[in-house]
Give the backbone structure.
Amino acid sequence: MLTAENYGYSGIVQLPQDIELLRTQTRRLVDRDLRPRTLEIERERKIPEELVATLRELGYFGITIPERYGGLGLSTLAHAVLQEELGRAHAAFNMLISGNNGIGVMGLVLAGSEEQKERWLPRLASGEWIAAFALTEPNAGSDAQAIEARAVRDGDRFILNGTKHYISRGDIADLVTVFAVTDPATRARGGITAFVVERGTPGFRVARIQDSMGSDVIKQAELVFEDCPVPAGNVVGEIGQGFATAMRILDLGRLSLAARCLGTMEELLSVSVAHAKNRVQFKKPIAEQPAIQHMLADTATDIAMLRPALYTAASRRDAGETVTQDAAMLKLYASEALGRAADRAVQIHGGMGFMRDCVVEGIYREARMMRIVEGTSEIQRMLIARGVLEGQR
Ligand SMILES: Cc1cc2nc3c(=O)[nH]c(=O)nc-3n(C[C@H](O)[C@H](O)[C@H](O)COP(=O)(O)OP(=O)(O)OC[C@H]3O[C@@H](n4cnc5c(N)ncnc54)[C@H](O)[C@@H]3O)c2cc1C
């Protein structure tokens, strides 16, 4: 059910009933158990254990993992809706489960062998294990093809050497999908391979946690691989096809990020409306000031534009279409719109919006990463323009 608090709902997209039901359940969980803990989580830099346990019990670590491996096996559309709802709570909830539902495991789900899926997916679906995705390196960020991590075949194993950084959940991950060069001559055209590396593999260590301007509830870490032996059975997909796999994973990741931005914008609008109605200056609520109303209107408009576009792209992906272009557009639009919405929300709250005990302050800082992760805004524009020039749109 979409409620009156769901500001900005355009009414354009009618979702299937089962997805509406899932939305209602998640909405209840978010409003009853998660949202009230936002400031505590921000302060303590930790999600309370009982809430992690709740997410595990309710299956949120396995939203996208097929049912036969213990997941919920939900569609891209349903996943988007659940992330949107969770996006109204502290960003750490979506970040915690995003590896297991997205970039950390999608390589296995999309390209893994039956044996690999049976071996790893059940533990990830239950949330017993946490997954991470390690592509970025100190010398290869936007230009991911330039990675230097090297995996050299040695009988029935590969010897992995290299450094990955800014890896979300890298410090807590039990399983990392790592990308490394297996053929320097061909690199992205057949020379980059995806591997599953388990925590505890000799030569694999978390070198350091990288403190950030965000809440750091879910952290980024530098991972080092030194003569790390990875069994050949841990190669995900075909040898040499890792770069193509990474790009497929990122298409989905970008839809997910758009959904998370959307939910956070709804939260910003909701708390801004409440504050604007409540805060009296010049003997009347600031909500009566056109300047405040315009800010609320702009955020509501961004929400209304984004939601149907996101649901449409997710549905198209569920129908088997390639959504690279849509995912890039949605990630670009949503992350930039979230930045604007967070800035307006701080402004509407005045001095309070700058203070640590105000929800919008934390959202403002955390939101900044959305224009950087999984391809910066500049890289999304580059991808979109490439598609446009090829006549896609
Ligand atoms: C919070 C956070 C979490 C992350 N989590 C992960 C993770 O889990 N796994 C992972 O692998 N990586 C992760 N990353 C890394 C992230 O994907 C990279 O930071 C991002 O892709 C940008 O790379 P970079 O930081 O090296 O910036 P650079 O590539 O050095 O870019 C610097 C600037 O140059 C611009 N630029 C670069 N090339 C071009 C171009 N051709 N045209 C125009 N502008 C250009 C960029 O847009 C940017 O503004 C994370 C990063 C952050 C901040």
Observations:
- The chain has three domains: 17-125, 131-241, 244-389.
- The pocket of flavin-adenine dinucleotide is lined by residues 132-136, 141-142, 166-168, 212, 220, 369, 372-376, 378-379, 382 (CB under 6 Å).
